[in-house]
From TrEMBL:
Annotated Ribosome recycling factor domain residues: 22-185
Pfam families: RRF
Family per similarity comment: Belongs to the RRF family.
Subcellular location(s) of the protein: Cytoplasm
Record protein name field: Ribosome-recycling factor
Organism for this UniProt entry: Ramlibacter algicola
Residue ranges that the Swiss-Prot or TrEMBL entry lists as coiled coil: 141-168
GO molecular function: ribosomal large subunit binding
InterPro entries assigned: Ribosome_recyc_fac, Ribosome_recyc_fac_dom, RRF_sf
GO BP, sorted A to Z: cytoplasmic translational termination
Length: 187
């Protein structure tokens, strides 16, 4: 049997995880700017097994619109270049000796609008996850009251606290969505 404090602590931890996952998803959404996290989803064939580019090369930012990929082994350049070109990111890498330059193509207005829709959708999914955690926590508290392990006053206080934590997490998600949209729409 858990206490109200444990229920709230568990819920808040899970809500923090939901926000961390949302933040991670946001890094994969392309803006007009170069970001090393953009290539995290691209896999390259490394001696018969698929690996993320970050595990076979150094990915860094050359300037606001260009990534540089420096393979750790001589023979990997062509494979990495091919993997980036064939990914669904719409990038066109160019080799310069051992270094691969990945220019970020400017995004059309239509593409920017699509990206903001994706960001909003991801934000909505994160909010749903947070609200589900709120519901689960409230259900646990109600069960404690039903089992006579807590009073109805405790339940009211707990539900108010749970709502405050939920509101704080939802506001955080809204802020992240807003900031990512501005990043995408900035030309």
């Amino acid at each position: 049997m858990s206490t109200i404090a444990e229920i709230k602590k568990t819920m808040e931890g899970k809500m923090d995880q939901s926000i961390a996952a949302f933040k991670n998803n946001l890094t994969k959404i392309r803006t007009g700017r170069a970001s090393p996290g953009l290539l995290d989803t691209v896999q390259v064939d490394y001696y018969g097994s698929m690996m993320p580019i970050s595990q076979v090369a150094n990915v860094s930012i050359l300037d606001a619109r260009t990534l540089s990929v420096q393979p750790w082994e001589k023979g990997m350049g062509a494979k990495i270049e091919k993997a980036i070109r064939e990914s669904d990111l719409g990038l066109n890498p160019a080799s310069m000796g051992d270094l691969i330059r990945v220019p970020m193509p400017p995004m059309s207005e239509e593409r920017r609008k699509e990206m903001t829709k994706i960001v909003r959708h991801e934000g909505e999914a994160a909010k749903v996850a947070v609200r589900n955690l709120r519901r689960d926590a409230n259900d646990h508290v109600k069960k404690l009251v039903k089992d006579k392990a807590a009073s109805e006053d405790d339940q009211k206080r707990a539900e108010a606290d749970i709502q405050k934590v939920t509101d704080r997490h939802i506001a955080e998600i809204d802020r992240m969505v807003e900031s990512k949209e501005q990043e995408i729409l900035a030309v």
